[in-house]
Specification:
41% strand, 420 residues, 5 helices, five-stranded antiparallel sheet, mainly beta
Length: 420
């Protein structure tokens, strides 16, 4: 099953006793220009003992302590923040309203109050986060609850959600991060149950470079980010476009252009960036390259042509299954990847922007998935020395115009995958 990880945001607005709603893919219209963030670099969080006393939906033998600890420490290593974790018998998230109780909690309890968090379309979501923040965008409380109607594990058991992956995603929301349009980002909005592609391994849970850049943009560099940070404003003149940057083919940063068509990037590490934009009609343009040094603050104009491709790349998958989500590929191996969209054929040019990833043209196959979609499969070789990360796939029409699945290849080291 494929489900959305969504965040419930509660605005502590002066002009209203309560305002809120289920938000997916955007923080809030009122807060679009203001990043939600904790005002202090130290964040106190209570871990509910319900994880150990009454969480019948977490498989026995799961490494609950490890999953909780790593889900927080992973974000600590990415930016200048620190969590203070304590354990208590508290089990309930704060109810919707103008303000919570001021204490942030992570809970696995199936209490009535927590069940209310999964109403109004969230019934099938594995987890949810409720944020309270003031009119300046300062987070005052963040509560995370696992959905008691879903099953979790830490060993990759089929039909369960990976506890560590779900918790790490929700901690990202706790820190004020929105969903990412990068398929291979940990903050991407979709989460798959284990075994959805028939894979016999558990992919390591890692932040993508786009996740880390987004966090640094809010909280500044991490302890070991000595060469950081740079800023870049791209003036593309196209509102509501997805703009992303790649370094050596890896997706490292992403932004959405504002109403004036400006895309702002913060928290960038030094490097030679290639930037691309995708407008609302799917048209993709290469915006050029920028070589950023430590501390650079740059801006430039880049006007995309916004000419759509005659092909579209909408789904990727393995084992004949297609979804709008990334595929996890082990370095040093050959994988048969399925691609779905419009206008795809064995003659369609397919590629990535990363040197070393090889597509076996002789293995192209056209598949019949019924009307309304074209599907091809191709064997892809991932070099053993390719750095882990999210890599985009593109398909080009006869005129060379490309459609992108941004960050659709999630590459990991085969040595770090746990075969089962």
């Amino acid at each position: 099953m494929l489900r959305l990880l969504k965040t419930v945001l509660i605005t502590a607005a002066v002009v209203s006793l309560a305002a809120g709603g289920v938000i997916a893919g955007t923080v809030s219209g009122a807060e679009k220009e203001t990043s939600l963030r904790w005002p202090s670099s130290t964040i106190k969080v209570t871990i509910s003992s319900s994880f150990y006393r009454s969480a019948a939906n977490i498989l026995p033998g799961s490494d609950i302590d490890g999953a909780l600890t790593r889900s927080f420490s992973r974000w600590e290593s990415a930016a200048g923040i620190r969590f203070e974790l304590t354990r208590a018998d508290d089990a309930d998230v704060s109810p919707a309203g103008r303000a919570g109780d001021g204490r942030s909690i992570v809970t696995a309890s199936g209490s009535a109050e927590n069940m209310l968090l999964f109403s109004d379309g969230l019934e099938d979501s594995p987890a949810a986060t409720r944020l309270f923040y003031d009119k300046s965008g300062n987070i005052t409380e963040a509560d995370i609850a696992l959905n008691p109607m879903q099953r979790f594990s830490t060993g990759g058991e089929a039909g369960t959600y990976d506890l560590e992956s779900v918790l790490t995603h929700e901690v990202g929301h706790m820190l004020g991060l929105d969903h990412s349009p990068v398929l291979g980002a940990l903050m991407y909005e979709h989460q798959a149950q284990n075994g959805i592609f028939g894979a016999s391994f558990r992919k390591p849970v890692e932040l993508s470079e786009a996740d880390e850049t987004a966090l640094r943009a809010i909280y500044g560099p991490g302890e070991f980010d000595i060469e950081c940070c740079s800023e870049l404003d791209l003036q593309i003149g196209a509102p509501d476009s997805i703009v992303w940057g790649e370094v050596n083919g890896r997706v490292t940063a992403v932004a959405t252009s504002d109403d004036q068509g400006d895309a702002r990037f913060r928290g960038l590490l030094p490097g030679l960036y290639s930037f691309y934009s995708r407008s609302g009609n799917g048209a993709v343009d290469s915006l050029g390259t920028v070589d950023l040094a430590v501390g650079d603050v740059r801006s430039f104009n880049a006007r995309p042509l916004r000419q759509g491709s005659r092909v579209s790349l909408d789904h990727v998958g393995l084992s004949g299954r297609l979804y709008q989500m990334p595929v996890a590929l082990a370095a040093g191996r050959v994988h048969t990847v399925y691609l779905g969209g419009q206008g795809l054929a064995p003659s369609t040019a397919i590629g990535t922007n990363a040197a070393g990833i090889q597509f076996d043209m002789s293995s192209f196959r056209l598949h019949d998935y019924g009307p309304g979609i074209s599907v091809i499969s191709v064997n892809v070789f991932i070099p053993a020395d390719l750095p882990a990360g999210a890599y985009s796939i593109w398909a080009a029409d006869a005129a060379g115009r490309r459609s992108y699945a941004v960050g659709a290849f999630s590459i990991f080291s085969a040595r770090r995958g746990s075969d089962r």
